[in-house]
């Protein structure tokens, strides 16, 4: 997930595919002297020269383009000096053909572009700039110029430019223009091809563009054209539907990941000690703040590692929140053994304290986080669904946490002790398990997991002293639904609640989603009061 | 009234994959004291849980007095039908006085149906029976373990139950207290009442039980008098191991 | 609890409340007259004390902790605010702010009749009973209790808060409702009205206190304690604990609703923040500090905590959360029965804090 190659590669291939069928009339080799001569000729000759320049920009070799680019600019600026021996580029005293220095032969004259020729040269100039200019800003400006006359853009130019473009945003704009140009071409076959190409990348924008063609005269006149438009519309609509579904699932999955990370600690602690830790949301918040502190520390101590703060903060966030959890258990909850409601109040006091201490120290504003490359951007997959790396980070993080938690609980002595005490505290104590120590360690583990949740959500959600409260109620619901102290229950309940939330939200809004989730949980408890994965047993 | 107070028919209770009671059938008659014994995990308390409606079985039924199917009735309906139970762990209301306990046990309802003097008489009578007259105004939380056991017995017998279930009534008691409890249980025997006792203390069982049912792994291993139980090879195997 | 030793504090408290209620109007015009601020504060404290009683009834006596009692308080408060706005509109023609804010020409249809107080009151009772009844029935039927019940009620009040934050619900949304000018035909904000409201709140407090006292002292009250101590035991004695819990739960909700109705005209505003989980938790803290299972304790806890809060909110608002969390820790660790422990300690020999906490351990988890 830390690689940036896949999206680039994908787009490169895409652009390559676009380029292939539009193979333009390739000017085998440019007759440079003839071109310069035409540039110094009459309006008709200059017109031909302009067309040649445009063709060169679209399909010429890289050397030819580099050679020809200054000519277009010079002609526009009247800096081309025509003389007896051909022409010179004014400023450097270079020969226009050879680019070697030479003296002027006779009185030079700078030809004036006619009103008809000027746009052609401007087009050529912009085309050269788009393909050859080193600065993104200049290429963007060149694209703006091209956008004004889409009908004049030669085939192949934009595809070539897109393939070479390194800036993702600009590349997308070039692609868009390229499609628009093709859709509005004069040749119906080219248009139909273009429609097919647009449909290959379904999105709401593509749909708008294609459905606009139903108003085109060709739609009524040309049955092939109509069929192509209708087919494309269908394909795009299907693509959008798939994309939307995937996007919903993906968002649900990322929300569920955060919920799972917030709830797993809660569930372990609840299963073990019967205590609901109302400060769990604040431990998440502390985890996020510790992440921020690590970022700030790196900024000062090792700016080169700044991008890796999310990774480097993992042990720090875990240990810091685990430490707070252990302190909470030792100082408070240990003395409230078997008094779950009092423990509830005690943990609320801690939550109140943490929120306010953070508020006093850091203020109430949202904290600013760097966005490292591995959590920025994403891959457009289909329709409007973008596989974003920040959500992927949360999902992958949760998956790794799940695996590690499972390993700890299932395969380590601590995990064995936790399971033993969860099932029967008295019996566990009898066979010599230090239950209080297990409580402490488990509380540390649960709290540390909350800290990691805070780290994982910092690239997605805003980080402020109140943030814990946004997750805590939902994670309680996960614990209630999943049942006491089961990892599997927590996973399933988090997935369920996460997906239900994102499914309902677009239909009736976020508030309705929360209402419905709560009602569903209450209804669910009618059916299984102990939660999904509760182990049944005799009344003790 | 039929002769049989409790008829257990093909009862199976499962906790997950564990069969706590496995296709168990037995009958308990009016007028008898029936002891249910067996090693830990044999299903004794689970059997009482099913009879008192706390646990729902997977299969089978439990008929009370030849009519009411207890597996379909609520705990409170079962109690109101005349089946009362003392729990294994003394279960009393720590915040209430001893007197209140007996009053709550004697007369079910949010408001008292008996008139005050009648209730008072009944409470005094029961307190006398279980020997807690002197403790009448103390809070249950302040009582000793043995007193709590008797208080709970008093509470369940105050309503004159037709079926009285006692889950380990002498666990944790001194010999003297056990002796008193044995007398108490025998004094409670009536022709129209069945008493079911779950107990580990074999001497106690021998003193009170008319018949003994030995449960093992959720099934009846043996049924008969205590003498025959002691003589039975299978029972000795189960208890003493091979 | 219901034993004789608690008789003296109870009588004293009732006497103080009634004397305060009687003295306030009598002092008006004399040099001992209380300031408007103080009178108003006393009235608000009385409303909070009623709220604390409502929670103590189910937590202290029934062992069910609700972290969502703000919901019923808010129902009373919102209905009262609706009555006040509609009544003020009918009398003075003032269009409420929130209608103007939403650009609505007239009240939503469900506001019809709210200018008639008996109707508004009946609606408040009906809504409270409906919500508490349904929620209580499904929760108690599935035997949800303890921590589960506490967090589900918290989720309930949280969801209600999100709902009321929406501006399109017709209940004032984010800004809530304010600008009450007339109550029962009398102008609000006058000294007389402030005193009258404070006296009414004190009398309501005395009334609720006496009524609850009678309830918990009765056979029914004993059954409540029995349910708290061992519900299964009581059920297997033939009692329908579901019905008992439901009755007390709904009664408690109604008392909380009443507190809300007393509170809103005195504070002059209602907004969704009364539905925040924090307020509902705070109620539990008042009761814990005063002492669960003691009506007098709940009242004193509510009065004390809120008096300190009133004072601090003007003097040093940032410190309050820290003091509150410190108080909670103190109560749960050292004085599990709150102020009632302090009262007891005075009578017994001194002991260290650890010993004290174990001595004073609550009767049952």
Automatic annotation (TrEMBL), chain A:
Membrane disposition: Multi-pass membrane protein
Annotated signal peptide: 1-27
InterPro entries: ABC_transp_permease, ABC_UrtB_bac, BCAA_transport_permease
Sorted UniProt keywords: Amino-acid transport, Cell membrane, Membrane, Signal, Transmembrane, Transmembrane helix, Transport
Transmembrane intervals: 255-276, 283-302, 308-328, 340-362, 392-409, 442-463, 475-495, 507-527
Matching Pfam families: BPD_transp_2 (PF02653)
Compartment(s) where it occurs, according to its Swiss-Prot or TrEMBL record: Cell membrane
Family, as annotated: Belongs to the binding-protein-dependent transport system permease family. LivHM subfamily.
Protein name, entry field: Urea ABC transporter permease subunit UrtB
Organism: Ancylobacter koreensis
Gene: urtB
From TrEMBL, chain B:
A Pfam family that the UniProt record links to this protein: ABC_tran
ABC transporter domain sequence ranges: 6-242
UniProt keyword annotation of Transport present: yes
Alphabetical keyword list: ATP-binding, Nucleotide-binding, Transport
Stored InterPro entries: AAA+_ATPase (IPR003593), ABC_AA/LPS_Transport (IPR051120), ABC_transporter-like_ATP-bd (IPR003439), ABC_transptr_urea_ATP-bd_UrtD (IPR017781), P-loop_NTPase (IPR027417)
Signal sequence, start to end: none
Top-level taxon in the UniProt lineage: Bacteria
Transcription regulation as UniProt keyword: no
Family annotation (SMART domains): AAA
GO MF term set: ATP binding
NCBIfam families per the UniProt record, alphabetical: urea_trans_UrtD
Protein name: Urea ABC transporter ATP-binding protein UrtD
UniProtKB/TrEMBL annotation, chain C:
UniProt main location, coarse: membrane
Location relative to the cell: Cell membrane
Top-rank taxon, per record: Bacteria
Keywords for the protein's UniProt record, in alphabetical order: Cell membrane, Membrane, Transmembrane, Transmembrane helix
InterPro entries: ABC_transp_permease, ABC_transptr_urea_perm_UrtC, LivM-like
Transmembrane spans: 45-64, 71-96, 116-140, 147-165, 185-210, 242-263, 283-307, 319-339
Family matches, as PANTHER family: HIGH-AFFINITY BRANCHED-CHAIN AMINO ACID TRANSPORT SYSTEM PERMEASE, SLR1201 PROTEIN
Protein name: Urea ABC transporter permease subunit UrtC
Organism: Ancylobacter koreensis
